[in-house]
């Protein structure tokens, strides 16, 4: 992610081996890291893997209290192999 940028572009691929997909959860937590200041929490979500579908998806994020953030979402591309 680019520093000091709340429009992040990770361009990374993450691979997760699953033993029991029916019980697996994908937890995503977003932070904005500064070199000189405190890290800023951007949002979080926890998704049951069995509900995920391939393709481009919009994932809403929640604040630290679990309340859905109105204006913060992730655009993710999911691919299963």
From TrEMBL:
Domain C2, first and last residues per copy: 1-63
Pfam families xrefs: C2
GO MF term (any one): phosphatidylinositol-4,5-bisphosphate phospholipase C activity
Superkingdom in the source lineage: Eukaryota
InterPro entries: C2_dom (IPR000008), C2_domain_sf (IPR035892), PI-PLC_fam (IPR001192)
GO biological process, one term: release of sequestered calcium ion into cytosol
GO cellular-component term (any): plasma membrane
Protein name (database record): C2 domain-containing protein
């Amino acid at each position: 992610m680019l520093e000091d940028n709340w429009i992040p572009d990770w361009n990374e691929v993450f691979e997760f081996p699953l033993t029991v997909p029916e019980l697996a959860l994908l937890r995503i937590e977003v932070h904005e890291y500064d070199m000189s200041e405190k890290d800023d929490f951007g949002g979080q979500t926890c998704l049951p893997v069995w509900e995920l579908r391939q393709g481009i998806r919009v994932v809403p994020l929640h604040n630290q209290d679990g309340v859905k953030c109105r204006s913060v979402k992730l655009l993710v591309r999911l691919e299963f192999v």
